[in-house]
Amino acid sequence: MDHTLAADLGRLPELLEAVRRAAADSLDGLDARPVVPPPPAQPPRPEPLPEDGAGAEAALTAFRRRWEPRLSASAGSRYLGFVTGGATPAALAGDWLTAVHDQNSNSALDGGGQDLERETTGWLRDLFGLGPAHSGTFVSGATMSNTTGLAIAREWLGERLGVSPAEDGAAALGPVRVLSGAPHSSIAKALSLLGLGRSALVPVPTLPGREAVDPAALDRALADTPGPAVVVANAGTVNTVDFDDLRAVAALKERHDFWLHTDAAFGAFAALSPHHAHLVDGLDASDSVCVDLHKWLNVPYDSAVQFTRRPDLQTRVFRNAAAYLGPLGADPDLVHLTPENSHRLRALAAWFTLRAYGRTGHREIVERDVACARALGAELERDPAFRLLAPVRLNVVLFTLTGEPDPDRLTARLTALREAAAGEVFTTPTVHAGTPALRAAFSNWRTTQADVHRAAEALRGAAAQTAVKGTA
């Protein structure tokens, strides 16, 4: 054994304690750190690979000196970009133990990890109001969950047409139509990856002033579609957190033949709150469902779950024929259910946080974040510098600056505003109905009303600063 590696092994408890202290220091300082640090004047030059290592403690020291100051405080309470959760204390503990036990939980030959994942997906199915007909598997994120769901849909199309794309290729299907009102960008990416093509995605008109699909327009589009189709419904769009009427969409199956995939990446968490659960009424009617766990479940990246009613088609797509992996069997190993042969025990962090805080604890996070989003929306609405572009339906505030009709100048001012406020609050840019805008998404377990006030003050100050610069 290399002498440095042997030395680290010999003092492993001390090294783990050093990492614990470093982690505690970083988490304790989240509130005081810039949410997104300013970029350095010049990017650091890459260091050469060491010929001889100096050990784990030296690596920790180098990381804290060279890279930690450049990392965002995305685990903290005012990182409102994308839709990013943090890691609850229990999820953090579970993730550390995931690395400690280092399971590739894909095979019944070493089945403890598989059983833990199945228990966890059962808890999640119950949490989101899905029935026993849905089976779930962990994947790396919403993009992979959507891709997996659409891969199963592709095989369902083949079943309807008497072919198997898994065996014969996507070309065996002929032209495919995937209908959706306001699909996430990952849907087109998945169609490209699956050989169906981005052009297979057919936009369907949405309700006036909404991002929710118009069920009557969807009915007409399905009537015009030759043969079976795929419908992608949305339970929480990224800009305005709009929800398709899932019951109305599912009811169209009485007249049309289609696979219903619902992208509920973060909107599924509305089911946790009695005040908002109506938004996902009908989710159980979906043939496949995407939910992203490193959003509102507040487990570390990368973690999502994919549910489907047709695990038989799922194994037809993803089965892996190798003697050392074992047969499919009546209850297929996880290796036969996702694109990944290597599959870390992502479920452990989710198991920990669900076991630690239960339905009640996670409902409180959801409802507190929704209250924070509404409070920020109200603060910005009262300020003449800002204009909301949509009602705050759940956990996202979509806003822009007033008094700037030119889109290019508005984009420049919003960029300057983001950069000026980034030390206190991080938001992400978007465009809604042709208007450049910013999005503040609340999904972190730490966020409180005090953070809302601090974020609003930072945005107001940055808006005033950019207005002065714009008139200079």
Short description:
The protein has 15 helices and eleven strands. It is of the alpha/beta class and 472 residues long. The strands form two sheets. A seven-stranded mixed β-sheet has the order 1-7-6-5-4-2-3, sandwiched between helices.
| Strand portion | 5-15%
| Tertiary shape | globular
- Tell me the number of strands: 11
CATH architecture of the largest domain: 3-Layer(aba) Sandwich
Stated plainly, the CATH topology of the largest domain is called: Aspartate Aminotransferase, domain 2
- Distance N to C terminus: 66 Å
Structural class: alpha/beta
Taking all Cα atoms into account, the compactness measure Rg is: 24 Å
Number of domains: 2
| Unreliable residue stretches | none
For the sheet with most strands, the description reads: 7 strands, mixed
SSE pattern, N- to C-terminal: HHHHHEHHEHEHEHEEHEHHEEHEEH
